[in-house]
Specification:
Blueprint (H helix, E strand, L loop, with lengths): L7 E7 L3 H13 L5 E5 L8 H4 L15 E5 L12 E5 L18 H7 L6 H10 L1 E3 L14 E3 L7 H14 L16 E3 L14 H6 L8 E5 L1 E9 L2 E9 L12 E11 L2 H11 L2 E2 L1 H6 L6 E2 L7 E2 L5 E9 L7 H5 L2 H14 L11 E5 L3 H7 L4 H8 L8 E6 L13 E8 L5 E8 L5 E6 L9 H15 L5 E4 L33 H14 L1 E2 L30 E3 L14 H19 L6
Parallel strand pairs: 1-2, 1-11, 2-8, 5-6, 11-23, 12-13
Antiparallel strand pairs: 3-4, 7-16, 9-10, 10-11, 14-19, 15-18, 15-21, 15-22, 16-17, 17-18, 19-20
């Protein structure tokens, strides 16, 4: 957007991710005279192939990527001494521009459990409907049909996903449903729809659908490559921000600070990592954190940076298998085989179809264990099941899915692969994110993930490995395990991994794992479990007495004219891929800010 840069704005957004784009876009559409500035550390995503072509999502995971920030956590014995790395988006549109595009929604009860006035599910469902155009079924009462974000089945159907549903239902004894995103259904095999426009085949992200489509408005401005350092206050009233050039997206640029003023409101929207850091650099946080960084405390809010959980991230285990030569997978595309890419691109450009408009997974189950499975999971999970899941039938323990292709670093020979994925939804462990001073006097991150600290959290991952292996070895496309990328079971074990010529019979007995085999699986998961990029909770919307950071209207406690609007405000976890939640928080925040400003911006 090449408009003259204003020196003062009405509203400044510190961060240009998913939620910021929704809020800024809605407010600008409701009142085009509002002068709105988005300051984003990353770069633009407008019409860039890596962002709009769905199949390219995996490129953003590369270690050389500048569209992601790699947050390195403190090493932990729970992960066998590993320092976990959690990616977060670093570009306009945030996670919506780089994520896997997996469409899931949390059960309605997740929002009711937050216990925040105005954020009950009955108040949020209209906003969930407002933001989407659900292209896969008509007349579903909890889905929307006129919103900016498109939901479709993608560019073509994958046979492996159809196998997964068919075999899963037969072997795993679970029913089928067309829609497990109606805010209550779970424990069924179902299609996995995507944030992909069914007509154009393009990624349906917040940047293009809320902000870039308003390029005609000179009052809505985005400045990229700008990292917000802190909020500027006058008598505890937020009046602007200080920012510098971002060193990752603008290497070699002048690092001197600039300021810009906001006459009405500053909105911190830099995500679960960036938002608490901005608040702490602004003097809002716990005394011991600020003191260590030589920052004068403005407001004592010890909850800033806390509440990062296993409960605010989902743990994932991605395990690859061999697939039959004749099945269609994403592998040739992801390997960059020129003829395959060009053929698919040609079709995509003509009608929005082909594997270009795919993420590799068309099927899932939001899984809850039955009595036999609970028994097999052993005592470590029982108390967690009883206290949290047993009486909440709409809450799944994990999502099981299979990706048609190898989701991992390079190095495997050019063949067809399948990746089995277990995504746990409500881990019980807790972490934190703070700023700290490094030995060189530069700011660093003090990040404790909490992954697997609670002994119940590893159990669904261990069980999920076994269950998904049993499902896949019954699928026609099964051709065995890749031994180097599976648990190294001892010689002579019935569980030893190897290549195979085909599947076992549907009624074949399950693999019998010894106690030693179970230990091997657990060590494998502790060595390999990773974030699934769903960080939230670090500026929680709770009472101040309960370590809250913002109130129900997203106002930061102890100051005025300052809100936080992003996933960091979620007080408890949500059982979903969190893009849907980030959009929802954006729509709710837009309504709240519009009310504050006297603008009509209702659903």
């Amino acid at each position: 957007m090449s408009h003259p840069i204003l020196s003062e704005f009405d509203i400044i957004f510190a961060g240009g991710g998913t939620t910021a784009c929704v809020v800024a876009g809605r407010l600008a559409a409701c009142d085009p005279s509002l002068r709105i500035l988005i300051l984003e550390g990353g770069q633009h995503t407008l019409n860039k192939a890596a962002h709009v072509q769905p199949y390219q999502y995996f490129t953003h995971q590369a270690s050389t990527s500048t569209t992601m920030t790699f947050n390195v956590g403190n090493s932990t014995s729970r992960l066998n001494g590993r320092a976990p790395i959690v990616h977060c988006a670093h570009c306009v549109g945030g996670g919506s521009s780089v994520n896997f595009m997996a469409y899931t929604r949390a059960p309605a009860s997740d929002f009711d459990d937050w216990g925040v006035d105005g954020w009950e599910s009955k108040n949020l469902v209209p906003l969930m409907k407002k933001l989407e155009t659900y292209e896969v079924q008509s007349d579903c009462p909890t889905h929307g049909y006129n919103g900016p974000i498109k939901v479709s089945s993608g560019g073509c159907k994958l046979g492996i996903s159809e196998e997964f549903i068919r075999v899963g239902m037969a072997y795993h004894k679970r029913p089928y449903s067309d829609d497990s995103n109606d805010l209550e259904t779970c424990n069924t095999y179902s299609p996995w729809f995507k944030y992909i426009d069914g007509t154009t085949g393009r990624r349906s992200d917040a940047a293009h659908q809320y902000v870039y489509n308003q390029a005609h408005n000179p009052n809505l401005q985005i400045r990229v490559g700008k990292r917000v350092k802190r909020v500027i206050f006058e008598d505890k009233r937020a009046v602007g921000v200080e920012f510098t050039s971002d060193p990752i997206s603008c290497p070699g640029a002048d690092q001197s600070s600039s300021t810009v003023r906001a006459s009405k409101l500053v909105v911190v929207s830099a995500g679960a990592f960036g938002s608490p850091a901005i608040l702490e650099r602004s003097g809002i946080g716990a005394e011991e954190v600020l003191k260590q960084c030589c920052i004068e405390q403005l407001v004592n809010l010890p909850g800033v940076g806390e509440n990062y959980r296993g409960l605010s991230d989902h743990n994932g285990a991605f395990v690859p298998y061999f697939a039959a030569d004749e099945v269609v997978t994403m592998d040739p595309l992801w390997r960059g085989e020129e003829s395959v890419v060009q053929d698919n691109l040609e079709q995509w450009k003509s009608n929005g179809k082909s594997l270009i408009a795919q993420n590799g997974s068309d099927a899932k189950i939001k899984w809850r264990p039955d009595d036999d499975e609970l028994k097999a999971m052993g005592p470590a999970f029982q108390s967690r099941w009883k206290e949290f899941f047993q009486d909440r039938p709409d809450k799944a323990v994990a999502i099981f899915t299979i990706f048609s292709g190898y989701l991992g670093p390079g190095g495997l020979p050019p063949r067809n692969y399948v990746t089995a994925d277990v995504l746990t939804l409500y881990p019980a462990s807790v972490g934190s994110v703070h700023i700290k001073m490094g030995e060189n006097g530069k700011e660093e991150i003090d990040f404790t993930t909490g992954y697997l600290d609670n002994p119940s959290d590893i159990v669904p991952l261990n069980f999920g490995y076994k269950k998904l292996r049993e499902i896949y070895r019954r699928m026609p496309s099964y051709r065995g395990e890749i031994p180097a990328l599976h648990p190294r079971f001892p010689e002579g074990s019935a569980a030893v991994c190897r290549e195979a010529t085909g599947p076992v019979d549907m009624n074949a007995p399950d693999i019998i794992y010894t106690a030693k085999d179970d230990e091997v699986i657990e060590e494998f998961n502790r060595d390999r479990v990773r974030s699934t990029w769903h960080s939230l909770g670090t500026c929680a919307m709770k009472s101040r007495a309960d370590q809250g950071v913002v109130d129900a209207r997203l106002n930061v406690y102890g100051v005025t004219n300052l809100k936080v609007a992003d996933l960091s405000i979620a007080p408890k976890n949500v059982g979903t891929n969190t893009y849907s939640t980030a959009l929802l928080i954006g729509e709710k925040a837009a309504m709240l800010i519009a009310e504050d400003l006297g603008i009509d911006c209702r659903p």
